[in-house]
């Protein structure tokens, strides 16, 4: 009886952790959609892009409130993913003699490496364009010219390549996370699951393609200093 109780408690805790993982990921997904909207002002020119970000800084309380929520969300997301992964590995102390991936997807199998890569991308992006402490060698960060910081940075080949590759990893990560969100929350309906998954994957691809479009546009000479 005690063993059954412990197993039930373990399952309940795992479900709770997966729900936290899904909800924190969903929160970041919605933020990325809004962030993409902000960044697409790049294509409206320097004045529009700079004015948009100047307006955001006019309300420090709101700005830091949003940042606080995002920081809490990423801490929850990373923390729960580490616990879930550790439990999964501990439940299989011996390696399989023959490893088979059953009823899974490429994205699901690669979440453990896309997650850290996306995390590295996030840290670098903040240090690079938010803080200005990781500008490419030879470039100075201008705290008043956000547009110029972006364009000059993406003119450096390795920086632009890193952003494009990182957005590829983000696409895979978001596509799996978005498509599995409803299953994690118990909202399963065979009649709409396939359509919902297609929409989730398409949305992830569109969001990340939008972010990748900026370094590509600099390469193509569409966005210039």
From TrEMBL:
The chain crosses the membrane at residues 20-44, 64-85, 118-138, 158-177, 198-222. The keyword Oxidoreductase does not apply. It comes from Sandaracinus amylolyticus. The lineage of its organism: Bacteria, Pseudomonadati, Myxococcota, Polyangia, Polyangiales. GO terms for cellular component: membrane. Its main location: membrane. GO terms for molecular function: metal ion binding. It is found in: Membrane. This is Succinate dehydrogenase cytochrome b subunit.
């Amino acid at each position: 009886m005690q063993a059954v109780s412990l197993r039930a408690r373990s399952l309940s805790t795992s479900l709770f952790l997966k729900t936290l993982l899904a909800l924190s990921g969903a929160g970041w997904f919605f933020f990325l959609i809004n962030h993409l909207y902000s960044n697409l002002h790049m294509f409206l020119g320097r004045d529009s892009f700079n004015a948009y970000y100047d307006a955001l800084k006019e309300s420090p309380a709101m700005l830091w409130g949003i940042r606080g929520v995002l920081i809490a969300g990423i801490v929850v997301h990373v923390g729960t993913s580490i616990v879930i992964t550790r439990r999964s590995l501990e439940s299989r102390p011996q390696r399989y003699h023959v490893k088979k991936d059953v009823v899974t997807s490429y994205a699901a199998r690669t979440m453990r490496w896309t997650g850290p890569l996306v995390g590295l991308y996030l840290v670098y992006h903040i240090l690079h364009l938010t803080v200005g402490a990781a500008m490419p060698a030879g470039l100075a960060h201008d705290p008043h010219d956000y547009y110029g910081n972006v364009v000059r940075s993406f003119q450096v080949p390795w920086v632009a390549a890193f952003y494009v590759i990182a957005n590829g990893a983000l696409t895979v990560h978001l596509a799996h996370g978005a498509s599995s969100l409803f299953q994690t929350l118990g909202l399963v309906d065979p009649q709409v699951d396939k359509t919902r998954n297609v929409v989730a994957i398409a949305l992830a691809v569109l969001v990340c393609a939008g972010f990748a479009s900026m370094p590509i546009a600099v390469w193509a000479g569409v966005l210039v200093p």
